[in-house]
Input
Amino acid sequence: MQTLRAKILTIALVFLSLISAIFLIYSIIATDSYKEQRLESINRWIEYEAERVNKAVAVVERGAVSYALLGKYVQESRSRELGENLVLDYIKSFIVASGGGFWYEPYVFEEDSRFMCFYAYNGEEPGSAVLGDAFMNGFNYHEAVWYGEIIGDITQPHRAVWTLPYFDEQLGKRLTTAGAGIFDNNGNLIGISTIDWDLDLMLERLYNLKPTENSFIILADLEKGYGITNTMSRESGRPVSDIWWDIYADSFVSPHTGIEYLIFRRQLDNGWTLLLQAPTKEVFEAVDRKNNGFLFVMLFSISAILLGAYYIISRIVNRPLKQLTDEVSQLNLGNLDISVQASTNDELGLLARTFNTMASDLKDSIEAHAKEREENERIGAELNIAAGIQASMLPGSLPDFSKWQIDIRASMLPAKEVGGDFYDFFLVDSNTLALVIADVSGKGVPAALFMVVAKTLIKNNAQLGKSPQETFEAVNNILCENNEAGMFVTAFMGFLDISSGRFSYVNAGHNLPMLLSGGSFKPIPAKPGVVLAGMEDMVYRQEKIILSEGDALYLYTDGVTEAMDTQSNLFSEERLQDILNVNRESDLGELLACIKSEIDAFADGAEQADDITMLAMRYLGVKQ
Output
């Protein structure tokens, strides 16, 4: 048998290994987390810088659109002086732009002028603008590539388009131009406005985006398939297809240096794409260095702490724990009178006192459980007796009639051991048969006791020669006396004159019986009445029908129509009526069994919530 000290040693070693593994996993997860944070930081930085570029692009685009409105105004005025002054003033105030102007379609400015443009550019000094005479004097701008690109892409006013990057020999600069359409009042395109943007200024902005020393940035129009500028070669206008790596991937490895690069992308509002390529090692260099140092410190600290903890625990816990184990083991032998010695005031002492309390409580619980089981068995036996007594109070068979033919069948299935439903049939005199069915509010023993009282009162008053109406009025007043529990009874009672088939009946808030007459079951015609024990001095209405030979009555409680399935759907009166009509020719016993079977199939295992009581009577007429 392995000693406790050896077990503690083994557990400590295993625990140390698990802790080491956990911190190793933690280090890996933390490293991944730090890397994700680093990537998120770069993404946020790129997003911020891209937004700055977006704003600059938006300023140029809005400038081109505003410029187009001025171009329309100049065309309408047909004033060259106005055109020159406007381009000078606008470009002078637009310090971001390298230059800009109005460029009109042939003969729209002057009928004899094919070329008409106004162009100015910013000089070397801030706030100085110079008219571009070289452009304005006979320059065939209609043949210029940039002009064809802009006027070919313009489809609507107030929208700017961009050209491919190009080198302007007049200005000696690499440019890209934003242009907008100049439309007349009829919506015809009559020219364009342009704002030139110096790509070298853009390149200076892009240099600020580099997160590491060897990162490089490409600004490209992926939709048109060309590069605008980049910080690696400073080239402009090269096709995107010349880029040898997959710019849509998350990373790539240089075949020349073997260095892995991460790719970060941001699309600008005008459709351009900003691509940042950063060496993976440079991106995560600080993270790796930090995590490696943290891992070393954590592993060293954990090892030292665990070894010290093991030494202390083995000295302080081992001896009292062994004593506690020896004494507690007596509980396993069934000795509930054992008392564990609590020699310390720490957790082990608390554990010992807890075991003592547990043993005492367990002993008391076993004794209480035994008494409770005996009490439950006694109550169960008494309920079984009560159920038998209740069943014996219900009529078991029809009295022997030697002259008349009457078939009666009945059944009752309580929801609990005893229930509040009841039915009854008895002879009031030699020619009158009473039929009764009722449902007491509630379930269980209280309902069963109230049912006994109600059943007895109804039968006694009926046998005193009272009519159904008089019987219910008398029983109602008696039940209302001292009814502090507020219980009530729904009931239906009818007297059948056997010789004539006359059926006199009264309803006290109960489900209307189904009458088979004329080949189908239908609810018996009756006005609703107030329940018994609901209110004193109630007047009940007695009604009558004449039964013919073969007619039948089906009386039931709401446990039939309100039976529920697993989805809480009700069995319903309509479903009951359909089943009765389908089986109208069946024997009454078979009819009741069929209805009960249909209820069980409908419930599909759902618990019975209410008593199910049924009474069926068929009038067979007078024997000859």
Remarks:
- The longest strand covers residues 173-183.
